[in-house]
Structures are given as C-alpha cells and as structure tokens.
TrEMBL record:
Main location: cytoplasm
Annotated PANTHER family: TRNA THREONYLCARBAMOYLADENOSINE BIOSYNTHESIS PROTEIN TSAE (PTHR33540)
Keywords tagged on the record: ATP-binding, Cytoplasm, Magnesium, Metal-binding, Nucleotide-binding, tRNA processing
Subcellular location: Cytoplasm
A Gene Ontology molecular function term of the record: metal ion binding
Full protein name: tRNA threonylcarbamoyladenosine biosynthesis protein TsaE
Family indicated by similarity: Belongs to the TsaE family.
SUPFAM superfamilies, sorted: P-loop containing nucleoside triphosphate hydrolases (SSF52540)
GO CC terms, sorted: cytoplasm
Length: 158
C-alpha cells in the first residue's frame, strides 16, 4: 500500500495524470471514499494523462461515460446506483476485459463483479488539517499494478 497526502484538487489530479502513462487495456481502477472526497477529480487527471480532450464529468446519473479519443478508451463508471442484476445488464465484465481502462467510483456497490487484478484507491478527507486536505491510499492486486506502485512514477511531480 502507498499513501499520499495532498492539499489541493490540482494535486489529486496530478496523481491521476501520473498514473495514466502506466495503464494498459483491461486495467481496472477502483475508487472509494465519501461524496466529495475526490474520486471524480482524480479521474479528470487520469483522463488528461490519457490525452482525452473532453471534460470528464461525474457519471452519477448515467452510470457509465465513455471517452474514446485518448491513448486508450476510458470507461468511467459510478456504480452507486447499481441495482441487483444491474452489473450484468450494463455488461460490466465486458468493460473490465475490454480494450480500455475502467475506472469505478463507489466500487463497494459492485463488489461481486470485480476482477482479480485491480488498483484500489481510497480517498479520505482530513478536515482537521484543512478543507482541501486528503489522504489517498493505493493498494494493488496483481503483478501489473504492484509494479506500477513500485516504479516511483507516482510522486506528485517531486
Ligand atoms: P467525489 O467524486 O469523490 O464525490 P469530487 O472529485 O467530485 O468527489 O469532488 C471533490 C470536491 O472537493 C471538488 O469540489 C474539489 O474541488 C474539492 N477538493 C478540495 N480539495 C481537494 C483535494 N485535495 N482533492 C480532490 N478534491 C478536492
Ligand atoms: Mg464522483
């Protein structure tokens, strides 16, 4: 597990941007943390790092938004409102095994559908430090993501 402390939305975006070059087709990234913790902000940076020109918006009401004009397709999902059986209907597995990168906000609502290999990122507010302070913890499952965490590529530009 590696842990980052950030104190601005720009830094959270930066981490996403730094992760993007290491990603490959079929990668799944799970984002957990309360409303407003920074999951979508991180995804914006990731999209930027993939070279996606469109503004990345929260997929809360659509469940999935697809962005196809970057180095890899980005499938940005918010499964907070996923209902029983909804994972099959959406074809979540096809996305996870597909030609792009899947980013899943609120992954605990799709726990039964998740693949074996993933990067899990947990966002926590640190209100006692300041409104913009967050802790970002990354846990890898599988060789590819473990290698990324060990690479030192994620360093907030330091
Ligand atoms: P989530 O997707 O987890 O609900 P968002 O990324 O949509 O959260 O919203 C996070 C909000 O908190 C944004 O308004 C953002 O500007 C603000 N914010 C303040 N500090 C940070 C930070 N360090 N990282 C991410 N977002 C931050
Ligand atoms: Mg969000």
């Amino acid at each position: 597990m590696i842990k980052f402390k950030v104190d601005s939305p720009e830094q959270t975006e930066k981490l996403g941007e730094e992760l993007a070059p290491d990603l490959k087709a079929g990668d799944v990234i799970l984002l957990d943390g309360d409303l407003g913790a920074g999951k979508t902000t991180f995804t914006k940076g990731l999209g930027k790092g993939l070279g996606i020109k469109r503004n990345i918006k929260s997929p809360t009401f659509t469940i999935i938004r697809e962005y196809k004009n970057g180095r890899l397709p980005l499938y940005h999902m918010d499964v907070y409102r996923l209902e029983e059986g909804g994972a099959d209907e959406l074809g979540l597995n096809e996305y996870f095994n597909g030609d792009g990168v899947s980013v899943v906000e609120w992954s605990k609502f799709a726990e039964d559908e998740l693949p074996d290999d993933y990067l899990r990122i947990k966002f926590t507010r640190n209100d006692e430090l300041g409104d913009n302070d967050r802790t970002i913890e990354m846990t890898a499952s599988g060789g590819h993501f473990n290698a990324i965490l060990k690479s030192g590529d994620l360093n907030l530009g330091r």
